[in-house]
Structure formats: structure tokens, C-alpha cells
Amino acid sequence: MAGTPLDGIAVAWDIAMSRTHKQATREARERGEAPPSPSPPVSKLLTDFADGLREKIAGVGGRLQDDERERLAAIAPQVLACIEADDKPVVETLARLISLSPEWIALWLRGHLHEIETRFAP
Q1: CB 13 within 8 A of CB 43
Q2: Average pLDDT, the chain
């Protein structure tokens, strides 16, 4: 996981900051406020993961139609709330999807879009 002890400390810091941000976000939402911005990761491991995830999301977005992206964007806050609440089925599904190529993720999303919208309707 971490190459050196300093890398390990950086990963631990990132995890701690992520948990702190998650709690602050939950509290802000409960008060009806905008969630705070997360701290950028300091570890190479999480920085590389975040960069890869951004690239994958961009790749998926490029394979979806405009209306599909809009429909997914409309439910994004509800999906994020489930992630923040550690909703196990949602987190596990997202973890499985992340391991797929952008082509397969887009295909899966397209095939399940109605079901996803129904599940996360505001």
C-alpha cells in the first residue's frame, strides 16, 4: 500500500481528513448548508487514485448521451448522501463499477438508468 513510512503517514492523514470531511458534510446537509470542500489528498496513493477516478468519470461521461448525463446529475446529491451514510449496497455497487472500463460502466448505467432514478428520486 505505502512504499515508505512517510507514505503510510500520508495515507493515514488522507483517511482521517476524509472521515472528518464526511462528518462535516453530513452536519452541513442536516443544517441545510452547502457542504464544505474536501481537503486535497497528500498521499501519492490517494492522489493517483483520485486522478484515475476523475479520468474514468470523464471517460464514462463521454460515452453517455447528454440527457443521460443530465438525469444522472439530477440524482447525484442523493447518491452522495448514500455514500456519506455508508449505504452498503450503494457503496458495493460503486466499488464494482469502478473496477470496470468506462465503456462497460456507461453500458451498465444506460441499462439501469430508470432503476437508478427510481431508487434515488428526490
Answers
A1: yes
A2: 90
